[in-house]
Amino acid sequence: MRGYILKIAYKGTNYCGWQVQPEKPTVQAAVQAACESVFGVETSITGCSRTDSGVHAKGFVALASGNLPEIPLASLPLALNTALPCDVAVIEAENAPEGFHPRYDAKGKEYVYYINNSRIKDPFSEETAWLFPRKINVELADSLCKEFIGRQDFASFMAAGSKITDTVRTVSAFSAERNGDTVIFRVSADGFLYNMVRIMVGTVAEKASGTALPDIKEIIAARDRAKAGVTAPAKGLFLNKVFY
Amino acid sequence: MRGYILKIAYKGTNYCGWQVQPEKPTVQAAVQAACESVFGVETSITGCSRTDSGVHAKGFVALASGNLPEIPLASLPLALNTALPCDVAVIEAENAPEGFHPRYDAKGKEYVYYINNSRIKDPFSEETAWLFPRKINVELADSLCKEFIGRQDFASFMAAGSKITDTVRTVSAFSAERNGDTVIFRVSADGFLYNMVRIMVGTVAEKASGTALPDIKEIIAARDRAKAGVTAPAKGLFLNKVFY
Fold first, then answer.
1. Residue B183, Cα to own-chain centre: how many angstroms?
2. Is the pLDDT of residue A88 over 90?
């Protein structure tokens, strides 16, 4: 048995998320096929997270394990990238310590969300940013972000119908900044509920552009999805880093 | 008769360039279809330039003319964008002065070229940058760029087989800079020969990363395409601005 930890970037547009599903294109299936082609043996792939259809990653972490040959770590990304489709890349490889699990060992994650805050669409970010025409007051947005920080019950920021009952999470950082027409949200937490980042971003973007919604503290206290704002679309969301 | 000047951005990946060709997807055909749908009458579209298959634009200039209705200039881009495919956007519209011609009236153009200077591919710039693995010395590259500036005969930087005989052009600016793994070339001239920017960028990138090639002055003096370096691929090239 040998395991390699792979740091992976992918553009999620053409995939039904990370996790293997029968008959559907998934990033996990693409990575597994590339590994089996390079390693020449059956390879098990374990990811750090499921990601939704259309969500992207710059620093997804996966474990490739099995009866794998030893390959120099500097060459492994290049070899795998040759076998991967153009929208998936292995950017780093390292040897996995015995017993490493990409999901259970993760201490937290950082997501980044991009908004194109313009009335005019941008052909170069159509698949990687949310086109949001109303002007966002980014100082206000950043101050709203700060109200999420801490160990709180985020039930209001979980997709309706989700089965999870322990909805307490610790948000360690959440910020908004502007770069021209692009508004960038960055959020870190020890874990995320289903659609949590997308509902947080949707709520802050709406409030900071004039939509009447309750105060963030009230929305959190309500423990009611209906009190929060819209779910921002998947295409602006990037899994940026996993903390171990 | 009424004319609108349209400033257009497009991702050229899925188009056989700007200019209409029978049976092929072109940006001009897409713009014409959108105009005719919004204006409700036959519309003539004239572009500032042909661009090659796969080349992009951030500031392409086109004239839409015909028996067109008057539409408020602030609304026109939004109306046209609704009718355009997702990889083409009208970013500005203004009234055309009588007799305006986007190509003949242009005094010059600026192109930008992006290189991903890394051994590792980037899923987010696969269609908009040239993956160039050998390290480019960007200070050297920038100093090589400067040798192109001025009124010179650029026959060595024209695609072999081109029919043009007057190969003298004035390059007013040419620079290279690095932003992380991205190397950005920016070049302005009063006109460009066929593939001129791509051969200039290919030659500088090769020389600044260790390929043995003659000095730029010698290559220019030779008036021989075979003396210059490779033609950089279309996908890294953007028509950025047109000067009038």
1. 17
2. yes
